[in-house]
Amino acid sequence: MLSLSNFHNFSTGHLEVISGPMFSGKTEELIRRVRRAQIARVKVQVFRPSIDNRYNDKDVVSHSSQSIEAIPVKNSNDIWHRIKDSTRIVAIDEVQFFDNEIIKVVTKLTNRGHRLICAGLDLDYRAKPFGPMPALLAMADEIVKVHAICTICGGIATRSQRVVNSKAQLLVGATEAYEARCRAHFEYSETETEEDRQEQELLNVTTENANPTNNSLQIN
Ligand code: ADP
Ligand code: MG
């Protein structure tokens, strides 16, 4: 299949979004693209949100233990300020964890002529669109939807099933808390009790307060 990303010498900016559920190979695909760029001796900077503390501080690591050096950042503006003059390609893993400012940062970088490679969850554990992902997917020049394998039936998994009891949209550092599931085997009750609603409101407030720059992570 002809893919725009096979060409690295774009004269204009270019946005590639890799999305899908957990365990679908988003990070592997990001690493693959970054390595190809490095082989072509194109200067790449890789970023990831520092909130994702599953692995060591300096790397992006896939579930299959592939890794690549990355810069952990607290918020999207940090990415903007850390771009070096020589950087041609900007890769961002777990992009769904960033605040909505990431949409502006990605737009500015693309307009400035950078190639952007963003990988992130399209849906949260409720199968609802995750944070800035709908906007990034809409703005993308190229979208790659990757799939995992359903842990129940071995079919194509497009959903991330939370297998522990928590209502926070952000539950990182706990891959054992999720399983890849197909549509048929994904379970989430849409009916929200008053208790659920109150708990969600509390979580929103807690997360906003936790971020002094007000680049709060959206929980909705
Ligand atoms: P993502 O970034 O989308 O969470 P990764 O790139 O980190 O995914 O990891 C993908 C790898 O996860 C696969 O190559 C495979 O080795 C492993 N894996 C573990 N569970 C599954 C699953 N249910 N379906 C597919 N791959 C899985
Ligand atoms: Mg990943």
What would you note in describing this structure?
- The protein is α/β, with parallel strands linked by helices and 220 residues long.
- The chain has one domain (9-209): P-loop containing nucleotide triphosphate hydrolases (Rossmann fold, 3-Layer(aba) Sandwich).
- Helix content is 25%, strand content 22%.
- It has 5 helices and 12 strands.
- It has a 6-stranded parallel sheet, sandwiched between helices.
- Strand 6, helix 3 and strand 7 (115-121) form a beta-alpha-beta unit.
- Helix 2 (76-82) packs parallel to helix 3.
- The longest helix has 17 residues, at 194-210.
- The N and C termini lie far apart (37 Å).
- Adenosine-5'-diphosphate binds next to helix 1 and strand 9.
Radius of gyration: 17 Å
Q: What percent of the residues sit in helical stretches (DSSP H or I)? A: 25-40%
Write down the overall mean pLDDT: 83
Shape: globular
Counting structural domains, the number is 1
Strand content: 15-25%
End-to-end separation in angstroms reads 37 Å
Given helix and strand content, the structural type is alpha/beta
What is the CATH superfamily classification? P-loop containing nucleotide triphosphate hydrolases
Number of strands: 12
Helical stretch tally: 5
CATH topology assignment: Rossmann fold
Query: What is the CATH class?
Result: Alpha Beta
**How are the strands ordered across the major sheet?**
5-2-6-7-1-8
**CATH architecture descriptor:** 3-Layer(aba) Sandwich
SSE ordering: EHEEEEHEHEHEEEEEH
| Parts with pLDDT < 50 across at least 5 consecutive residues | 205-220
Largest sheet, if any?
A: 6 strands, parallel
Which distinct ligands sit in these coordinates? adenosine-5'-diphosphate, magnesium ion
